[in-house]
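Hi L., both proteins are below.
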Amino acid sequence: MTERRKRSVSLRRCFFLTLAFLVTASVVVGRTPKSSPTPTKKTGHQDDSLYSKPAADLALRSDGAHKADALTHFVEGMSLEENGEMDRALEAYRKVLNVDPGQAQLASRVAALLIEQDDFPQAIDVLKDAIKANPKDDAPYQQLSFIYAKYLKKTDQAIDYANRAITLNPGDIEGYQRLVEIEVAGGQEKKALEVLDRAAKIRSNDANFWMRLGKLYVAILFKSDSQPKPDELKRTNEIFKKAAEHAGDDPAVLKDVADYYAASQQLKEAIPLYLHVLELQPDDANAREKLATGFILTNQRGKAVEMLEQIIKEHPEKYQPYDLLAQVLDDEARSLQRARKVDEAKAIFAKVAANYEQSLLINPNHVGTYLRLAELMLGPLKDADRAVGLLTEARRRFLGAPEIVYYLAIAQSEAKQTQQAVATFEEALHEAQLDQDNDIVNARFYFNYGATAEQAGLYEKAADLLRKSIALDPANSAEACNYLGYMWADHNMNLDEAETMIKRALEMEPNNASYLDSFGWVEFRKGKFDLALSNLLNAAKTVDHDDPVIFEHIGDAYFKLNRISEALESWQKALALDPKNKNLANKIERNKAPVGNGPPTKTNPTE
């Protein structure tokens, strides 16, 4: 399909070229760009900087039959090159140059093909002929400079040709870059800077000229092992400032300038540019991430918060600063969370949520903000009911977005709306299958769906879903294996399969306390109470924080071994960790020793 379309385009282009030739006696067309896609065939000496797009048009100045022949050869060369027949294409192109050697772009192309064949003398001859025929075109000079510098190692000639290209076209950054590369390769950084200073004096409205010039300054002045000097920083800032001034609403240039300021730790200058990029491209996650990450990596989170709050004060109507402030605060909160400063982290997470909510009030049509806020509510804030409301509204706004439906299902599950969650998971699965580009249906999806089905009492459905999760990603299936095994053990079903699954989980994570607890529990269900107690005690030692489920299981094992006082002690520890567990409280009450009436009556501890 692609090749057929490509050939069709080529034939149409050739047709119009021929038509233009027949209609007018002197075809005059625009100059082709210097850059181009990579050619079909490459050999050892190819350098992409040598490759100009084969001229899509021709300004032949010869008359009559010579002109027609040249045009025929040109069209033939284009066709051969598209088919990867470079040698024959070169032959055809050279026939064109025999008629009109002044075709600079075509001459550059032919020179590049000759360089592939190590034929540097012929390449130089072609370019010099082009200069003789059209001495005011700078392209052949630039390519001669490149050949003399890279392949012939003749620096003086390379510099001479680069300077002549700059003289002809002082507003083209290519000539300066070529000259800088030559000087740097020769260890002449001072001379390279002189070239850049010469370019900096040019009057240009081309944002890309200033952007590339700025990057050349950075490459020379900014060393990885040291900070730039104040005068060097000021010097480079002026160049990037011009790039931004002439960029208009070009997000690519604005982002490059912002990256420069962020990398040089000039956040005050970077922030407004990133914000402008996000105004032009609201869904540019890369710009958003760069800004937030830049603050974090430069350890200037506090300064970033201060700046963003000031921007919000000055422009409360813009949603992007709220989003960015939320991201910076979120990183701070997670840092506090890792340091186990729970209360401080929770307070910051609340601020994160408030900023995301304000962003949505201003711009309720940004799906990413809904998802980030929902993740916050389901995670650190543990407010599943609020997440359900948020995602229900998001689903109404964004019809046909499987991610929203998936998150809603998870939120409903966390909010104990398990029957509704199962139905929502099925809807998410259906919508994702309709959207071929969506990849939410993966091992994690089936794990979450299976866990919800289990909570809804749909054990066979849960088992099928968990098996799908395991099959999709067996190397990372420990959690799913354990969940399936524990589900069977907890309901005293399929105990052999349960034991197999939990053993698989332990093979992948032998020191996981939850999996050790599961293994102890399946042994308990099989009546192996001594072995169960050993594994359960091991789980209690391994876990990084006290777990009420493990203590309850230990109490149950002690009870079966008729060690009643130890059973009561373990249950009481579990109840202290989970005071709302009425079943556990009743278990303790039933098995307390009545005062003066001997040992308690033995009951089923798992009820």
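That was the first. Here is the second:
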Amino acid sequence: MFKKILFIVLLILSYNNLYSDNIFQSVKERLKSQIKKVKFDNGLNLIMMNRPNSPTLAFYTKFRAGAVDEIPEISGTAHLLEHMLFKGTKNVGTKNYKEEEVYCEQIKTIGHQLDELKLSIRSYEKKQEDPPPYLVSKMKRLGDELKSLQEQQKKYIVKSEDSYIYEQHGQVGFNAYTTNDVTNYQIQLPANRIEVWARLESDRLKNPVLREYYTEREVIMEERRMRVENSGMGTLREKYISLAFDQLPYRKPVIGYASNIPFLDIYQTEDFFQKHYSPDNMVISIVGDQDFSKTESIVQKYFSDLKPSHTQTILRVQEVFHQGEKRVRIKYPNSPIMLMGWNKPATPHYDNSVVDVIDALLTKGVDSRLFKRLVLQEKIVLGVDGWNGDPGERYSNLYTLYFRNNSDADPVKIEEIVWEEIEKLQKGQITEEEITIIKNRIIADFLRDIDYNSTLADTLSYYEIVTGDWENLFNSYDKFSKVTIQDIKRVANEYFTKDNVTIANLIDSREKEKTKQKISSSSL
């Protein structure tokens, strides 16, 4: 029945240019009536949404543990820890943990000593001095000892056993991700497999074993090379984000730095786990066909004995806006790219919802202003997009514009057009019809997305962990529906200014070589 209602709503929003707030409010109240939140004594928040016509359950578990919770020295730890928690526990991923444990502890001790020795040797290299031969010899001995211990441990390891167990129970989408704000673990299972999930995931939190820590660190280093060093966009974006934020820890990359990943300390990683992977820093969202009382009872059984850490990152600093224009330019063998961003408040601030409308006006769809100007009319850009809430939403963030430039495009010309379009917004040169179409489109997109259990579980847990209340998901749409031309004009004047902008340009380093080749060919 709900799908029929949803289909009718989508038809109305798609073909009727009159925005119907009453329709959305009706759907919103129906959705909210299907949701129940439970807070356990240890601080764990459980959000359940019943969808009787969906025979599967989507499980999303989020921890308030992202890159912003790290000091620079341990940058990348949250992401590394996400990888490590797929390595099994004392009960899963091992043939005999009692025997394996001896090697685990020795590997940890030797690996830590080797890291400290490598850092000591690096200090000599910084001074352009040769390290003492006895240090080099000791480093080789410890390295050989570590490899030997790792080889002996291998005979006990059962790789991906958790994944195999889930596959036997019909899993879909078993995965995880780490952002600046959170770390998330997710899976979908048949509705009658909830206790399988609870047993495995509670064990992952109670009995984790950081197997293959030192080899996985090398995997992370290779991942960084692929995503950053060997990527034009990755390289540019890292420079752009680090420049845009003077105060907030958003300036650090989620994956960590090339200089510190090889030295991420296993004891500090364990400490990060103890502090941030605690029930009072955690939200579980379960969406699908379920009985609330049964679900609550199972979660209570497996998760209520987790101990709270009473540890949360509380920042004393905040970003200061309007500190002057910031620019960075890099050369890289890649098609040219330009990023422009403005500092602004994060959700659930009302102005964040206004920026959502501005983003749609500027970049969403072939009828958006910047697409028409830059792609269709001037033909100097191949693609344009906008990201609100970049790179996170726990603290003030950026609205970012992304341009994939033509090889012969002048970045100055692109900037001029962007400022022209922003000036139109600052003057209130927007029609009510434009805003109505945008509202209809965004609400329709939202209603399409909520047809998926996974999307709902992900979004509900995200709003709960980041903003403190899952209802802010719906409150943000209430705010969005109230946005006026005057709001757009005010926000564009307040934030979209030249003393609040960060601009990053990637210049194709191959162009100079191409020019040389053309000159050489013409002289023959």
